Automatic annotation (TrEMBL):
Entry's Gene Ontology BP terms: riboflavin biosynthetic process
Record SUPFAM superfamilies: Creatininase (SSF102215)
GO MF assignments: creatininase activity; hydrolase activity, acting on carbon-nitrogen (but not peptide) bonds, in linear amides; metal ion binding
PANTHER family, A to Z: 2-AMINO-5-FORMYLAMINO-6-RIBOSYLAMINOPYRIMIDIN-4(3H)-ONE 5'-MONOPHOSPHATE DEFORMYLASE (PTHR35005:SF1), 3-DEHYDRO-SCYLLO-INOSOSE HYDROLASE (PTHR35005)
Descriptive protein name: Creatinine amidohydrolase
UniProt KW Cell wall biogenesis/degradation keyword: no
EC number: 3.5.2.10
Keyword presence, Zinc: yes
Family membership: Belongs to the creatininase superfamily.
Amino acid sequence: MNFKPIPNKFEYLNWQEIESIAKNKRSTVIWPFGAVEQHGPHLPLATDSIFVDEIISEVFKLFSADIPLKKLPTQYIGFSPEHKGFAGTISLSSNLITSMIKEVGGQLSEMGFKRLILINGHGGQISLLNAAARELRSFAPGMAVFPCFLWSGVNGLSELLTKTEIEDGLHASLAETSLMLALKPELVGHERPNEGIKGKIPEGWSLEGNAPTAWLTDDFSKSGVIGDSRGANETLGKNLKELLINHWFKLIMNLMQSDWPNNS
C-alpha cells in the first residue's frame, strides 16, 4: 500500500486531501504574517517573519497529524511604512494586503474551511489585519476569522522582561534580539544599540496604547532600534520561545477542541 503521512503545510497536500480536510466541522487554516523591514544593524530584515514562522512551526509539532489544522506559507512581506527611511525595508500597501486577505480567505471559505487564524508577528500591522479580518468576515460570512498578534496576551512576559522593555522596547530591542539569539544566532550581529524615545511624551499620550501617534522610526532612532538591546542573551531568548510556543499551543488547542463559533 502506498501510504504517505498528511503534512501540516497546506501547499504540500493534494486537492483531494484539501477537499477532505475542509469538510471537517473544525477545519482551520493558520496564515502567519510577518514583515521584511529594518531591525537595526544587528538583526535580519525578516525578523518578524522568522519569529512567527518558527514559533508556529514548533506549535504544529505538538499536534497529532490527523488534526484538521493546516498552515499556509508565511507571508513575509507586510505593511511597514514606518521603517521605509531605512534601506532594505519593503512595504506593501494597506489596500493590497487587505485585498490579498479577502481573496485568499474567500477562496478558503469556498473550499469549505470553517476558520482562518491570521497570526501576525509585526506590531506595525496589528490594526490593519484587524480591519482586513473584519472585511473578510463580511465578504465570507461562513468562515470565522481570528486576527492575532504573536506577542499579545502571553502570560509570563512580565516575569521575563522589565517594565521598561515591555513599554519602550518597541523594535529590535531586548526581547527581539534575545529571541533571535535562541532561534537563529548566526543571523545576529555583534552591535547592541540603545536608542529611541528621547524627551517626555505629553501626559496621557503614548507611542502605542490608548492614545497613540502614527510614529515613524526615524523620528526617534538613527540605528533603527527603539529600546535597549544591550542585555540580550540566548537564555532569555529560549525562555521567550518556550513561553510563546506554550501559549499558542494552548490557545489553538482550545479552539480545535471546540466547534466555536458554530456550536450546535
